[in-house]
Amino acid sequence: MPLSLWLSLAAICAMGAMSPGPSLALVLRHTLGGGRVPGVMAALSHALGVGLYALLTVWGLGALIVRFPTLFQLITWGGAAYLAWLGIKAWRAGRGGALEAGAMATSNRQAAREGMLVALGNPKLILFFVALLSQFVTPDMSLLERAIIVLTAMVIDGGWYVLVALGLSHSRVLPWLQARAHWINRLTGVLLLALALRVAMGPLMGS
């Protein structure tokens, strides 16, 4: 995989990870309720769930492209519509949005379990990954290239939420984020809408 294409993949994965939603709220709750370690545990287990969905999507997309190209196109457009919905939701989010999450008593085991369940219990991740990975997957991709895609999605997701947990474990960070959440949400919304438009236009592999 060319470096320029991988950088595009990494940027899109980062955009998806940073979008406001239940995953951010989960890491926030466990960090505020139990400190740095439970927050990191939630982040890492969430990344494992994301990696599983990415693996299933990568291995299924190649066959779908070959056998059912029209169905694949419809699913891709559905994924683009979902990205657009996420963008609109982020744009319209209030000043706090997903940053408004109360603390809760927690443990490392509970944080790890809930991190995995939030990822696996969100079937919309499949739509997200179909929209995202359809830009990069081809039927003749090598095993190494598929593994790179899956690991990129997993490492970026885990890395982002670990940084969130580490940052939020410092008491001064959360008020700073909450004060700027309105603009953070709007910027995320614009980026997701731009990604949705790019997905609807066609794969990066063909450009």
Automatic annotation (TrEMBL):
It is found in: Cell membrane. Keywords: Cell membrane, Membrane, Transmembrane, Transmembrane helix. InterPro entries: LeuE-type. The chain crosses the membrane at residues 41-66, 117-136, 148-171, 183-201. It is a multi-pass membrane protein. GO terms for cellular component: plasma membrane. One of its GO terms (molecular function) is amino acid transmembrane transporter activity. It holds the Pfam family LysE. It comes from the Bacteria. This is Amino acid efflux permease RhtB family protein.
